[in-house]
Predict the structure.
Amino acid sequence: MTTLRGAFSASSALLLLTILSAGCGRTRTSGFFAGLPGQHYGADSTVQQTGGYLVIAANPGSGDTLLNCTFESVLDEPFGPCPFEVYNGSLHVDNSVFATPVVLLSTAGLLDDGLVEAQFDLVDADPQCVVGIVLAAESAQDLLLLGVNSRGQYTIQKCMGGLWIPVMGLDAFESSRLLPFSLPGVSVSAEIHGDYVDLRVNGQLIQVVRTPLPALGQVGVFVDAYTETLLDRFTVVPAR
């Protein structure tokens, strides 16, 4: 009897584990970013694997940079050489089959107040997957992310030493929904003035973020894992 009971318990546990594994599906980052390393970049790119995500970084300029890239030319490279192609007026960032988010850091940056803006068209992304802009990138492991998903929720996160720390947004999934549920087109902008950053999505002021120091430095864009998007425009405008 003891042997039969033990065999039944083992088989029940195995069945339960199988059911749970089948129901999980593929991992989504859902706002807090950790994924498996992916090798989906060009050999001529400057790439750093850190904290579970990929950073493809251009060499930043030495000063404030005015940039308004609409990707009308296939030679446009606001992020330097990168594995994604420019055609039909967009940078096609296809990260749809990889479990690793991608950060593209620009040649542009801010040494003083200014505006950073990116226009995304989501092609293929689960509702919780985030696209957004990156500010104050001191390195691949130290940056500020302002993102939004197609559910109309925003997230603001600080990466410090390769660890993601939530600042605000996405605390409870419903509490940060300030936008319509379906957002195929997303314009994300950040206006930096002193120690404050105004986050706007599709022209609507979503949140005013206070930072310990002005959010200055290299800037760029963020594309979540399992996400395909078109980047139609990337703009950096120093205030002076």
Notes: Residues 2-24 form the longest helix (23 residues). The first strand starts at residue 47 and ends at 50. The radius of gyration is 20 Å. Confidence is low (pLDDT under 50) at residues 1-52.
